[in-house]
Specification:
With 623 residues, this protein is α/β, with parallel strands linked by helices. It folds into two domains: 300 residues, Rossmann fold; 284 residues, Rossmann fold (3-Layer(aba) Sandwich), CATH 3.40.50.1820. It contains 21 helices and 19 strands. The protein has a nine-stranded mixed β-sheet with strand order 1-2-3-5-4-6-7-10-11, sandwiched between helices. Strands 12-13-15-14-16-17-18-19 form an eight-stranded mixed β-sheet, with helices on both faces. A two-stranded antiparallel ribbon has the order 8-9. A hairpin with a 2-residue loop joins strand 8 and strand 9. Helix 6 crosses helix 8. The radius of gyration is 28 Å and the shape is elongated. The termini are far apart.
Amino acid sequence: MRCRIMRKNGILLIIMILTVWLAACGADRDTLNGESEAAGTAAASDTVAGAAVDAHSRQTFYLWEEGNMPSQTEYTENDGRYADDPDFRPAVRIFPVPEGTEIKGAVLICAGGAFQYRSDENEGTPVAELLSSLGYQSFVVDYRLRPYTQEEGALDLARAVRFVRSHAEEYGIDEKDIAVMGFSAGGILSGEMLLHFDGITDGTFLDAGYVPDELDQVSADAAACGMIYAFYGRLSVASTDVESFREADLPPTYFVYGSRDPFVGEFEECVRALQEAGVQVEAHELEDMPHGFGAEGGWIDGYDAWLSQIFAENGGQNRLGDETVAGESVYTLNTKVADVINDPVFDDYGRLIFPVDLRISGGLELRDLDSVLMWYNNVNPEKTVEIANYLREQAASGEQIFYDIYTEEEKEADPDKEDTGLFFFRGDPGARTAVLNAGGGFVYVAAMHDSFPQALELSQNGYNAFALIYRPGAQTACEDLARAVAFLHENEEELGINMTDYSLWGGSAGARMAAWLGSYGTAAFGEEAYPRPAAVIMQYTGLSEVTGYEPPTYACVGTSDGIAYYRTVENYISQIQQDGTDAEVEVFNGLRHGFGLGQGTVAEGWIDRAISFWERNMGSYGR
């Protein structure tokens, strides 16, 4: 009953929180507004994007470049209801560890205040000073308040985490040893960030007009979360959504609250839901303490011991940026997708290894990649790990594994072309070449399942294989494929490949690209006329149009495919055969759409037969 009353009377509870906090701190509303303004208008000397960090000095940096702050709220005039004026700029304030003190890691702190103000004098500066004295590089985040939304404030925190991680070396920390902490509404804000804005989710998620920068490629993941009289959820309403907690892969979370806090029941319910979701939780109730006790109550020593242990456990895992020997397996099933993307060995193209057009949680592990690959089945986590390690090994050994297909001028004229390129899986020098296109419904590019594994198999068979990352959309995808074919022809000698009798491969939407380019040629999509492929290899696509100009074509599909009906595929191949062109189809009983290499299924080994098909048609180059 109490929970229902709280959910129904959120406004009353907000007033209750303010009253309790005021009583605890002996402050009045005017004082609170003054503190908030002082914190928000500190004279920041720079923005985090170009910060000149001095790890031994207190500094303040604005979080967003002027005119490029992601926002969904229009705020142009303060009618007296808001603590911050429209010209407020979110900032991060740094409290460095004193010289001579061992550095343990970093903590980002969000003061509370019901999203109406930031109680810095109680929950910001004094907490940061205490934590820095204990060995934590401490950062107070002056995030956006009302009228901005909780989500906009969460983006401010995510930006601050990215700043800290990008300067981990200067601050003397391991980039995995970063925690967030929030008091009351600040804890709710921290939870919002971890639930929805961690990893590499950037401002475009809320504001399509936001222009991402290099900092947006840095992960906003946190190793731990401190909920100080706070919970995951909304203001005055704790979340108990076990499934959302489980899907978000939340970090270990530390709860501390007072026995006289009106939200004790909500804290306890949230803790139980987190535990059911498998989240590591430690919770402490301070006897006879109210809401809003800040740094008082002696809880910080316990938090220090807990966080030190969390960071120590991180030390048993691979730490990004450590030097590794070429050939050493670094990634495992437990490795986070974000850790692969942000591995320095991949420079700025790491983001293209996984679908750049999908929102992928920063906590997603390689073992669970199948959960985001819509329309695909039989995704093999071990193969994902193998490919990620192969790419890293090649890059670490000095091999160039990624090639742009557009010039800098072309990408500047059309920014969407930034998200294109070729991943090179090397075969024997001077060997023939295959170009592979993953599917994804022309919505995203599922390369890790639908082109990288096939490319790796081809390279292990001695062939040079290139997996294309293209712009979603049938027309733009074909234009990118035509450009890729042109690029490979033009740079054949430099790449050490042979484009004679090349082949085009594709799965699902990628198979349509291969078929269309094979039939219509590169000139139909804006490039010079280059020779057509010796063979097209298609997986699970229901293409039905036959032009009479199809190259030799191999296709495979499953009988239980609900997207590409196998009878349509059989009919397509039959029409090509009737035109006198070599064509072959394999139909696999019971397989659904998107089976990839089909390892462990009736389709296993299809790629060997597809290679043999290509080889027997190598004399048809330039038909």
